[in-house]
Specification:
4-stranded parallel sheet; 4 helices; disordered N terminus
């Protein structure tokens, strides 16, 4: 893994408790919109065994395949190697990383929700990710 001084592209870490829904959808959107111009990571404070199937379906509807992703545990090295850390509704379960640009996106947890609700969460995440990408690397957008 490269250090921040060696990197030529910004890196973003998306964090939610289970790393199975919101953070995986956000990572999928950022990969889709930024191509390889941004290093994308996701993790959870208490990862689930697998990604939320309804989140997978909602992303598939917009042409983004997140089926190969696996929930991962949040670790200090990954956070330290990231330029931006985005938390999503994990409250006190997500640690604070001093010296990092941190944002908390208030999003409905898709766990146990019907597809119609997860679609709304997916679309809200896309808007957040597009704004983040415009801020990080405005010329990097692959798909407006």
């Amino acid at each position: 893994m490269s250090t921040p001084t060696q990197r030529t592209r910004p890196s973003v870490l998306f964090v939610c408790v289970h790393n199975a829904g919101r953070s995986q959808m956000a990572a999928g959107w950022l990969r889709h919109l930024a191509g390889n111009t941004v290093e994308v990571r996701s993790a959870g404070s208490a990862p689930a065994e697998r990604i939320n199937a309804v989140a997978v379906e909602a992303m598939r509807e917009v042409g983004i395949d997140i089926t190969a992703e696996q929930p991962k545990i949040l670790d200090w090295d990954t956070a330290q190697a990231s330029d931006v850390i985005i938390t999503m509704g994990c409250g006190d379960a997500c640690p604070v990383f001093p010296g990092k640009r941190c944002e908390d996106w208030k999003l409905t947890d898709p766990a146990g929700q019907p597809l119609s609700v997860v679609r709304e969460v997916r679309d809200e995440i896309r808007q957040h990710v597009a704004r983040l990408l415009d801020d990080l690397a405005p010329a990097a957008r692959v798909d407006a």
